[in-house]
Every structure is written in structure tokens, then in C-alpha cells.
Amino acid sequence: MSLTDSSPEQVAKAASVASTSLATLSLNNRNDALIAVHRSLLQAKDTILAANAKDLELASSAAADGRLSQSVLKRLDLGRPGKWEEMLQGILDVRDLPDPELLPALYGIVGKVTLKTLLDDDLVLERVSCPIGVLLIVFEARPEVIANIAALAIKSGNAAILKGGKESTASFHAISTAISSALTATAVPNAAIQLVTARDVIASLLECDKHIDLAIPRGSNELVSYIKSNTRIPVLGHADGLCTIYLHCDADHESSVRILLDSKLGYPAACNSVETLLVHEAALDTHLPAIASALLEQGCSLRCDPTAKAALRSSLTAEKAALLQDAVDTDYDTEFLSPILAIKTVVPPANRSGDTALSLAIAHINSHSSHHTDAILTSSSSLAAKFKASVGSACVFVNTSTRMADGMRFGFGTEVGISTNKIHARGPVGLEGLCIYKYVITGRGQTAGDYSGVDGKKWKHEMLALS
Predict the structure, then answer these.
(1) Which end of the chain, N or C, is less packed with Cβ atoms under 10 Å?
(2) What whole-number distance in Å separates Cα of residue 247 and Cα of residue 173?
(3) The whole model's pTM is what?
(4) What 3-state DSSP class applies to 364?
């Protein structure tokens, strides 16, 4: 890994060259590099956390006078309980993932074949996994992103160019220095992982579509939208994490409270935090009071529609009822990233089938959510099945927290980000999402013309077993 102030064009060219070498490294070489990175970060813990503390001090001052949001400040903190440990464990988890088998033919390792067809005698078609090539990751705060991306890039055989925000400059430098020191003693090319230190280079990097194959923004809506609008490079990511939970009237009472507390208050600044709660009308008196009471006790603001507010005012204590706020239409399209929850009642028309309320909830989610993560709480397997089939989000959950949408929790080791795109990689994108494929044909002198015309040879097109 290198910290570089070279021009964007030079950085992109160097990464492109390095990606070819990285893709041919053996599994042992790649895993040895990850072990070295883990060891170096562990040894540099005090230095890195001290640098992070400096960033936090400056960021806290900026947040105090409104120049920085509280959500960005929270994402910056590497000292938050468990965050440092999760970052390091993620590297080891990636090391222990199965080899993506990326065509390093020089070392006798066969690429992962996902399709094999006998076109004709001595003419075989194979679809083989391979790395994407060069990744550009632009991110705000989130200093752990460097370790996450470095681990996944090395394991998958992709080169990576990283450009971080000014909020965590000291943290970036400390982490990058530790990783760079570790990689110098490994087979990973120095230019395979580069942290760009020059300022005002994002626009120029976004023009390097000849050398960069995929852009992955990690940060605010504004950052993601800017990158999507200003590059010809394919972009993987999401602009918002507007997650919704639908509470059906047959949901388990106790688990509903636990799930809502975790989804909203486990880490409010996370993109997988729930922002809207849809409540079946019949659950207003049976389920919502306990949920609302628990949320209010932990400092969560509840913005309710008139029906939900009236139900809660009649069931909560006067002290808690006084804390309820009126929701406006824009609340159901807002990613709060703070302890605020918008509550909306789902009122099915009279004399309609039992799943009408579910249909209304699904329609709301598909219209208002950002298609990141949405969940249903219900004891009905048929309603759950309809919800899973009908909601078009990257992650669709039943009876669990929206906070489960995470690469580490999915068993991916870590993630490069969350994708809401309707492409090959959706949801938390880990090792598999960083691999594409190529088609390989092995023949013995055949030409396309041999199979043309009435007298041409006939195709066999026989599917072969994958070995």
C-alpha cells in the first residue's frame, strides 16, 4: 500500500498495472499479506487510536458549530466499543473465506468454473470467475474502510484506490502507514492499494474510466449523488438508508420491542437503522404502546401520524405522551440518522381480505424506502412469504432487526459497502461481489465458418459437469 500525491492519471495507471500482478498471486501469498496487515495494525493500535482522537477533537468542534453532522462524527470514532475489534476481526474473517479462485494460472490454480459446455469435440466453453480490476473508493469519515477495502481487495485480486474525507486525515494516515509497512514484506504490489493524499482530486479520478473499473462511494447522500452524476465509471452504492419495518397485528409482543430498540437505537447513525415504522391499525393498542414506551425511555423522538398519536396518548403516561410529536409527510422520506422514528398507521379498508393491510404496507415501502433494508414483524408464514416476494429492496427481513444488514453479520468477513443497485451485487458487498467472470474457449483449430451453411458442422452444446 502506498500513500501517494501523484496525479490521478498516474495513480489510476499504476493501479491498473498492479491489478494484473495481484490477480495472479497464489492464495497463500494473498492470505500471508492479510496476516501481515492484521499484525501491523494490532501493533500500531495506540498510534492509530491517538491519531483518531485528534480527528475526533477537530470533528467535535466542527459538529458543535454546525459544520459537521452528528452522524458523521459518530462514524468517525474508532474507539467506540467493539469497532476496533470488529475491524481487525474482519481482516481475519476475509483471510478465512474460501479462495475465489481467480485464474492465477501461473501457480496452477484453476479459475472457479461456473459453467462448462461442450460446443463440439475438442471445443469447450467455460465461464470462469475473475477480479473486476481497479476499484475507486471515495469515503467520508469511516477510517475502518481502509482496512476493510484493503483486505477484500487483496483477497479478491482487485487493485484499490482510496480517497478519504478531511474529517479523518490523521486516522487515514496512521492506518495506511501500518498497512503499507506490512505489505512491503509481502508479494502484493505496492501500487495495488493506494491512498490518495492530494486534495481536490475526486473530479479528476472520476474521469479515469480508461483505467478504473468500478467506483464505490461510502458516505452522505450528497457524496453518492455527486459521484453518480459525474463519472462514466460504473458506480456501486446507495444514496440513502431509508429502512422501514412493518408491524403486523399478529407479531410477537416481546420480540417486537427488542427488534425495534435494536433497529432504531443500536446505532442510529448507521445506514441500516430503521427510520419508519408502519403499524397495522389493530396493533395500535396491543403492540405499539410497549414499543413506544421503550423507545421514549431511551431518548428516541417519535413522530406520529394522527391515528397513532391518538392511540398512544390514551395508553402512555401523561409524561411520555407529552413527548410525542406530529409527523409531516416528508418524515416518511427522511433518513434521520439519529434517534428519531416516524410512525404511520396502516388502515385496511373495511370488509377486505386479511392481507390488504400488508399490501398497503408493501406499496408504501416500495414507494418511499431507498430499497436498502426493510422488514416485517409477523407470526404468519404466508404474510411473510408475500412480503419477501413483493418488497424490491436489497435486503428483506422477517422478524429480525434491520441492523442485520451487514457484511460481517452475513459471514462475508467485511464489506466494501451496501449496494441498492439492481445489478449482480446487492446488499452488503463482500468477496463474491468483487468478482465477475470471463468466458474461455479452448479449441483445436476450429473456426466459426466451419459451422456455417447447410453443409457446416453441427453444434453439440452439451452441458458438462463442473469439476
Answers:
(1) C
(2) 45
(3) 0.84
(4) helix
